[in-house]
Structure formats: structure tokens, C-alpha cells
Amino acid sequence: MKNFINLIDIPAESLRKIILDARKRKKKRKNLSSLDIDKDNPLRGKLLIQMFEKSSTRTRLSFYLSIRQLGGGVLNLRKDELHLAKGESLPDTAKILSTYGNAFMLRTDSDKKLDEFKKYMTIPIINGLSPSSHPAQVLSDIFTIEEIKKKPISKLQICWIGDPSNNVINSLIVASLKFSFKLNIAFPKKYYPKKNLYKWAINKKGKVNLLNNPKDAARNSDVIFTDKVISMNDKIDKSKKLKDFKKFQINKRIMACAKKDAIFLHCLPRGPEVTDEVFLGKQSKVWQQALNRVHVQKSILLYCFEKLR
Length: 309
Ligand code: CP
Ligand code: NVA
Fold this sequence. Notes:
Largest sheet: 5 strands, parallel
Strand content: 5-15%
Shape: globular
Bound molecules: phosphoric acid mono(formamide)ester, norvaline
Distance between the termini: 15 Å
Number of strands: 9
């Protein structure tokens, strides 16, 4: 069994294998409905337990469809429904979840909790977003980019404009090394990527470029990414941060600096970091991006069960 907690701990070959498997599976499902099971029924009888300590729309629904399409079932838990919230220990809870379920997906407000669960669980654990990373989202986004651009992401220029140190960009920085792509990151001067992570990327000869001008960052890019300025786990002065990022809102002038056929991506939910015009415009691929979570997470589940072909 394997865990899927942080991209940094997963070999590049395994990440590539997940994407290739997702591509094959998606193709085979062309004429199937949401709840139809893949022909090979690879996770028949398996139960995915998912627990949400934070809100979720896409992760909750897409993992539900992922496990169902592989032949398994899902149980959703909220922390406040469990004795865990009232004093039962995490080790005992982890052992109980491992007794009833076959895999555990956790959206958490604490990276430490992921490590703790990992320590005591005997079933695979999947990170469905933590304060420091969102690996399932980013792997799925790479799938979407390659699906649309029809070439390996290593041949593309990727640009992120916005918060340089939230969970999604942290995973994107790691992905830029695992998949060897060029990544421009633009943000206001007093902000900065997570220091250790950026240092790691530069030591590993990553092609990560930091800029303070959004137009310069967008220039010649194939993909423009952004995310909410305020993340769920942010403990900051929200109105100040929103003000600081005002000039980094993605609008059509910024999009015009990118390549003509550039696409816009956003993991959602959105805030004022993008105009309606761009978000709902032709270059935006956000709905396809959200749907692909289902396909990639199926292959992530198969990776965890060591059933990737
Ligand atoms: N992108 C994403 O993870 O969405 P949710 O927070 O709705 O799950
Ligand atoms: N960075 C965002 C991602 C939401 C899916 C957050 O953590 O709130």
C-alpha cells in the first residue's frame, strides 16, 4: 500500500504513471454515465472513508465519483460527529478507521495531523488539502494542461499570479521539479514563497522564477493560474491582504500578455483575484479542470492500492 500525502515524497515516475493511467481510463469511459463502474472494476468492495475538517465541494464530490467508478464505496465523516472531537485519541481513531475502511482521505487544518494519522493507520492515506499542500489538485491540473495543450508540460511555460505561499502553489512548485516545467510566480513585494521550499527548488535546479510584475510573469506563458488570495487556513489580516493583491487580479490585460492560445486555470472556489470576464471567458478551462479531478483521483487511488497498470 502507498500513501498520497505530498508530491515531494512520491517519485516522478509514479506521478507520471498516475497521469498516464488517468488518460487511458478517461478515454475508455467516453460513453459511460457518472456512476457506471469501469469495466475492470478494480476496487470492487473497497471502502474509502473521507473526513473533512474544512469545507469542500469539489474534493468531496470528485473523490465520491472516483471510488464509485472504480467499483468501491465511500463514507463521509465530519470530525464533530466523531468521538475524536470529544477526546478519543487520534491513534485509537486511526486504528478503528483502518479496521472498517480500506483507504482514508483527509482534508485537514493541520499538516501534523496527516503525519499522526499516517503513523497509526494501516490503510493508505490521501491528502485532500492541508495548510501546506494540495497534491491531488495539482496533479490533476497537470493532467488538464497536457490534455488541452496536447504536449508534455515540460515543454510549456506556466505562470502563477497571486499568493506565493499557499497550499496550491506549494504543490505546484514541487510539481515543477517532478515534471520539469518552467514556472513564473508573481506576487506583491512583501510576500514570498515558503522559504525552505523555494530553497529546495533552487538547490535542485528548478526553473522557478520570482517576479513582482504580473504582466512580466504572464509574458509568453501557456497557462495562467491563480487561486484565492485568502485561503481557508490563513490566519492574517484579511482586508489588508486583499488590498495588497489588488494589482495582481487576473484581467484581460494580463491575459493579453500571455500566448494567444494561453489557458486560464483556477482550482476554485474563487474570489476577487480574477475578473468575471476572464473567469467566464473562452480561455478559461476551470470546469474541465474541476471534472478532471475525478479521473486523476481514480488513478491516485489505484496507486495507493498498488493497482496501477
Ligand atoms: N479545489 C478544491 O479543492 O475545491 P473544494 O475546496 O471545493 O474541495
Ligand atoms: N488555497 C485554497 C484552496 C482551496 C481549494 C484554500 O486553501 O482555501
